[in-house]
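[User]
If only I could read backbone structure tokens as easily as an amino acid sequence. I have put the entry right below:
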Amino acid sequence: MVDWTDDRITALSDQDLKNLLVNAERRSVADVADKCKAELEKRNAAKPRKASKPRSELKEFEHSVSEQLAEVGKEMAAKYDLSEETAKAKSEGVKGFKAHRLLDSKGYAKLGGMQRDGSVAIERYISYRRGESTAYLGVFLLKDAPAEDHEFHVIAPQAFLDGGKPVAEIRPTATDKQKQPADSGLSFKDLPSAAEAFDKALAKLTA
């Protein structure tokens, strides 16, 4: 039987070392198995870790604006009762009602369907639904457009938005399904103005 000294084990290739570990464990040769594990752990620790790819400028912008939208969402949640429990309680009898989570699971703005299906470069949003009405605030950037061309969209029922236009007007590239024909929308170049309109819509929605 081979005497598996430390030097012999160190001289093995990774694959041979793994094979030896399997054989040692199968034959219940604990000391050899322990030496193999220790050497594999040492080699894994010495391997350089793959550096994560830096985000592109567009991804950096998306991440940053998602944080900003989430901050607006947190401010609104402190001002109004936007809990899922209240939304459900106030929506009793509405067929197929599903409460909206204000933010995603990581505390950022949610990923919009138009970005998810690749029809736009960026659609990140926060939203609240009660009954048959939804108030939505999101950032919107068309495909292949520079980041500075982004817009902030507020979408809600016509009665909740002063001067609201059909969603098809502020999102001309949207499909019929994406246009939310029952609602109206406003487009802004800056987030504070959009947040103010969103605030007013939420005030009416939660009244």
